[in-house]
Amino acid sequence: MKPARAVPHHIAIVMDGNGRWATRRFLPRVAGHKQGVESLRRCVKACVARGVGVLTVFAFSSENWNRPVEEVSGLMDLMVGALGREVPKLSQDGVRLHFVGERGGLSEKIIAGLLQAEAATAHNNRLVLNVCFNYGGRWDIARAAAQIVERGEPLTEANLDAAMALSHVPDPDLFIRTGGEQRLSNFLLWQSAYAELFFSDRLWPEFDEAALDDAIAAFQLRERRFGQTSAQIGASAQPDQQVA
Hints:
By secondary structure, this protein is α/β, with parallel strands linked by helices. The protein has helices spanning 18-24, 29-50, 69-92, 108-120, 137-151, 157-163, 209-220, 230-236; strands at residues 10-14, 54-61, 95-100, 127-135, 174-177, 196-199. The chain has a 6-stranded parallel beta sheet with strand order 3-4-2-1-5-6, with helices on both faces. The protein is globular and about 55 Å long.
């Protein structure tokens, strides 16, 4: 019997296509974002069921402030509402929430909601859900570097890694982007150095459990070498021949 293939421990997702999903249905763009929350709910449950340890999603980028005012306002209202509805359900499922991003531009109401959600789920350990809100990969690197310099520490790779916003979890194994686009869009630039990339043509509201399984299956077919050769990977995978 062949050994079961490993499920990625950490999955990162750019949830792209909400606006296009709504536009194709002659709906306001915010309706697509509401439907996107439903897709995220499905994805979280599927990740818990499949044994994924960490899920990181791109909910609102620092560049999204440039979108139409009504869409940004709708997204902020959606966040407030989702916090009230979803946190109790997530906590029941054993999900621990972390909100990653710059909080300086957010309202006091939203900031209070983020803090309360993190505190309410702090004891959970089945899945870490990182919601990147008002986040950018370049912001993350610049912020980490500034902290290191302020502390008077050397600017090394190890120090930078420890200062990044996602230092509480391992780097992503699988990076998924929906919506048909094939770019990182300033998401987890530092952390995705060795992530396996998977691009789906499905718009995020259409991304379901089967689509997630397709991405995981593609991941399981790839050889992750991390700079080594295939021969080295094969040798390290062999069971030890001697008993200590």
